[in-house]
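Rotation project, supervised by the postdoc (A.L.). Task for the rotation student: set up a whole-complex structure prediction and record inputs and outputs verbatim in this book. Inputs entered:
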Amino acid sequence: MIREPAIDTEQALRMSEARLKAEATALARLNEASSRLWRMQSLREGLDEMLAATIELLGADMGNVQILDAQRRVLLIAAQRGFKQDFLEFFREVSTEDDSACGRALRSGERIIIEDVEADPPYAPFRSIARAAGYRAVQSTPLVGRDGTPLGMLSTHFPSVHRPNEQDLRRLDLYARQAADFIERCRTDEELREREARRRAIVEGALDGIITIDHEGRIVEFNAAAERLFGYPRLEAVGRHMADLIIPPHLRDKHRRGLRHYLATGEASVLDRRLEMTALRRDGTKFPVELSVTRITIGNRPFFTGYVRDITDRKLAEDQQTLFINELNHRVKNTLAIIQSIAAQTLRETPEPTAFNAAFSARLAALARAHSLLTRELWQGASLSDIVSAALAPFCGDARQEAMRINGQPILIMPNIAVTLTLVLHELATNAAKHGALTTPSGRISVEWTNTVGEPGQPANIALCWKEQGGPVVNPPKKRGYGSRLIAASADQLGGDVAVEYKPQGVEASLRLPLPAKEGLSVR
Amino acid sequence: MTGLAGLRVFVVEDEPIVSLALQDMLADLECKVVGAAARLESALKLAHQLTFDIAVLDINLGGKRVDPVANAIVARGLQVLFVTGYGRESAPPHAAGPVLEKPYEVKGLQRALSEALRAHHD
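Outputs recorded:
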């Protein structure tokens, strides 16, 4: 009898040892599973690991982990062991409406244990699938986030009627906690990765160069646009001093002083506004940029991010605009000077107001026609035949069409020469209408020109000939009129020779002028 | 009676029409136009060859600046009067004297010529 208690004690001791051993094994297994979990990146892999550990812990045959789709409030299988397609199809989505173990657990937020599915009335609709899958008992434990948010379900299935003991259930709670933590960690990681991917996409997709430097001026960020802009690959730029890379040498000291001054005093002249400055490419070329710099603080340390835009095109457009405005101003002034000169000259010739008005208006109209021609060609020049036609237009009405003969090759004339030629031709035609061929019905004027463009060994010249015929007998004028003075005065501007001959049968004027090499033949 | 009578003037102006008017104005002021040029090349040649007291120079000759001509004239110890349609600021740096802005009338020309000659003699 004495020994009996001893045997009992021994037995109790052995049982307690076995329990301790089992406890130690379960904790070791949990520890092993969770340390493996921390190394795992994919949710599925981690859940597989936790499921395997749980099945082993509870001595179950099969099991699954479901993840809650928070929007649709349904559980979706994320990991499973021991099930066939039929079961997986059947339980593909489980809602709070369902009376399956996991459905009930989702509804109540608490663990559901069904010791015997055959004896559980609400489980009736699932019995056939349970039989086919080969389980008789099931437990579903909710996976809950640290803040109480439901995340999913950890279920295990047993081949025969079964209820896990309290100790197993306590351990199961530890496993469920691990699994829930793992799901949360994966979600946070995923969010971080997504956020980083979005940030990177924004930075890399930007058309502006984005460069971040640390407080020492070293590059820590250099986006794709910056690579294109400056010609340095990111890997080569990161870690180097920005000043040495993209700031022209004469501005480097200023940059370094500015950075030091800011760090010492917090005063900065460059932060948070748009600046225009010169930047340096890898190949040594400089280009204008628009730059804005912002300060960011990460972990107490200041960083500076610069947004850089190449404004070469804009600068060019601005320069061009300035040039255009200056040129326009010059042209207006020049035209006013020409008009003033025409007025003064006309007044000398015809002081009588009515005659003055007629002659002045006609000259002004000729000038206006020359301008119209040139404007049409964007002041690049005008074709000689257009110039001749424009100058003679008022003198060849319908009745006079056949009196004029205009003939020559296509030639492009520079704007200033075009204006002079128009006015010279206007004077010749005015004289012809007053004293020459245009005073009689039988009178004829021919304006013809030839050129030596492209002829080897010859400077490119054009020779224009004005010839009047069939008019009254011509007598040389006693006093040189404005027309012939203007022709003579034009010679030097035209860079050629001019001559006016008062032949009895009609006035003949010839102009020979060189063409600048670039002009060539007009395409029009 | 203008105080400019007999002054020998060399005219450099690329617009023949404006050049003619300028020559007539100078004639009205009893000046003597000894030569006229419209292009940089001919102006440069005449700047060395002609005998004159003052040159009236249009700053822009068909898109080219008249500076080489002005330099040649200043080097000869002769005076220049710049004329421009671009505004005073377009004048070359050695244009210490007056700059005549286009369009101008005979009184303005007379004043500018007198001023240029005074500046020269000071």
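Student's summary: Helices of chain B lie at 16-28, 40-49, 67-75, 106-121.
Supervisor addendum: Chain B touches chain A through 27 residues (CB under 8 Å).
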